[in-house]
TrEMBL record:
Belongs to the acetyltransferase Eis family. The keyword Transferase applies. Homohexamer; trimer of dimers. The active site is at 123 (proton donor), 409 (proton acceptor). It comes from Actinopolymorpha singaporensis. It holds the Pfam family Acetyltransf_9. PROSITE patterns: GNAT. Keywords: Acyltransferase, Transferase. This is Predicted acetyltransferase.
């Protein structure tokens, strides 16, 4: 079977849309598709053709994301990936992935690609590693008691119209983006997408609510949430479903969570994309008040090892030779001398014996600061040739706050 991968051109959205419906086995409601369309970048969409048939599709969103430093890095957000059920397991996805990575390298655009996986078993073979995790937390209202947070009583919470408060919420969001690796700077279509609130995606819950946290008349935070009522014979058993909570200071963040976890008629509050080091989990007096489930979040792929490793900063001083295995992107394979600290980094080819030998996917897993290298070494997946280099490299790659992708795509 001959597969030709090429840009989709003018009609890209319509073709991508049809492909998504068929490959995901869904009918995409118009209101949700409209939100997606506003973010779609037609010139970054590629199709895999078998004869005249569009057999597969992949797209890229142009993101700017926080990496350890903190620094802002342009990353390619790979999305809308699908292959026609009639053409599966014949290499169509592989052709798309290869084309996309080679094209990114040749164009010199983003040195890192990221994605979220429908099924996590798919992307490791293409050099993606699990770079962030998502914590699904369900807080039991009856056990919600929190430790006191200084200053939180001075914060008031009030309702606001999501549309009218878009700019003020965007200001809070922009202020917090550098505070955690993996946070994406939202441009206009992504800001609007946050409050688009398509009815088809509410799953029986209320319309989106927006509350602002204020101190001395200044907005210091906001939250977007929905409520889902549930009238049971034993009493009301509703859920507060939190979509996003941000604040520029700890007290305001605490005040927002206190509000969100204490709603009459709602016996629990859920959030799908928290970090394991979120302050909420430290404030709860009863750690079991929040039942948490941890799963893979963002997957990262170093498209260009040299540029990627020199763009981020390192928690402790590092001087190491890495031997990288990368069959799909041979320009990354081989030995790299990486030297860096909190203020700068350089990475270049070297002809010296390596201290560590590892797959490019494992570098991707560690890139945003997740503390995984030592664990991968303990698991026998990263080979330490120079004693002590694994612990030193793992420490230097690990950021002080856990990385988190909190913008699903
Ligand atoms: C996932 C999907 C894109 C794979 O496309 P495909 O063209 O069949 O993939 P390929 O033929 O190129 O497969 C490449 C390899 O991945 C494996 N693979 C493909 N889909 C897989 C899956 N869902 N789970 C585990 N492995 C998978 C194949 O077995 C093959 O392995 P091999 O290299 O060891 O032989 C396609 O099945 C699909 O459209 N699924 C539904 C939509 C979806 O989940 N999209 C991904 C969004 S993140």
């Amino acid at each position: 079977m001959t597969i030709e991968v090429r840009p989709l051109g003018a009609d890209a959205w319509h073709q991508a849309f049809t492909m998504m419906e068929l490959s995901f086995g869904e009918t995409w409601p118009q209101d949700a598709a409209d939100v997606e369309r506003a973010r779609f970048e037609p010139d970054r969409s590629i199709g895999a053709f078998v004869g005249d048939t569009l057999a597969g599709h992949a797209a890229i969103y142009s993101f700017t994301m926080t990496v350890p430093g903190p620094r802002s890095l342009d990353v390619a957000g790979v999305s809308l990936v699908g292959v026609l059920p009639t053409h599966r397991r014949r290499g169509v996805l592989t052709a798309l992935m290869r084309h996309q990575l080679h094209d990114l390298h040749e164009s010199g655009r983003e040195p890192v690609a990221v994605l979220t996986a429908s099924e996590p078993a798919i992307y490791g073979r293409y050099g993606y590693g699990c770079a962030t995790q998502w914590v699904y937390a369900e807080v039991n209202r009856a056990k919600r008691a929190m430790r006191p947070v200084p200053g939180s009583d001075e914060v008031t919470v009030r309702y606001a119209d999501p549309e009218k408060s878009l700019d003020v919420c965007a200001g809070v969001r922009d202020a917090i983006v550098p505070t955690r690796p993996g946070y994406v700077r939202h441009n206009e279509p992504w800001r609007r997408g946050e409050i688009a609130d398509p009815e088809s995606e509410r799953g029986g819950a209320s319309a989106l609510r927006c509350v602002l946290a204020e101190r001395d008349g200044e907005v210091t935070g906001f939250a977007y949430y929905r409520s889902k009522a549930n009238w049971e014979p034993g009493g009301p058993n509703g859920t507060t479903i939190v979509q996003r909570v941000h604040a520029t200071d700890t007290a305001s963040y605490a005040a927002l969570w206190r509000f969100l976890t204490d709603q009459d008629l709602m016996s629990k509050t859920t959030h799908r994309r928290l970090s394991l080091d979120d302050p909420l989990l430290s404030w709860l007096r009863d750690p079991r008040a929040a039942m948490v489930t941890v799963r893979d979040g963002m997957w990262a792929r170093l498209v260009d090892v040299r540029r990627a490793l020199s763009e981020r900063r390192y928690t402790t001083p590092l001087d190491v030779v890495l031997e990288v295995r990368d069959d799909l992107c041979p320009w990354n394979a081989g030995r790299w001398h990486l030297a860096g600290d909190g203020s700068g980094a350089s990475c270049g080819r070297v002809d010296r014996e390596p201290d560590l030998v590892l797959d490019v996917a494992d570098l991707g897993a560690a890139y945003f600061g997740r503390p995984v290298l030592a664990a991968l070494g303990a698991a026998g997946l990263v080979e330490e040739r120079t004693p002590g280099s694994l612990a030193a490299t793992s420490r230097a790659f690990t950021s002080e706050v856990l990385p988190l992708l909190d913008t699903p795509f």
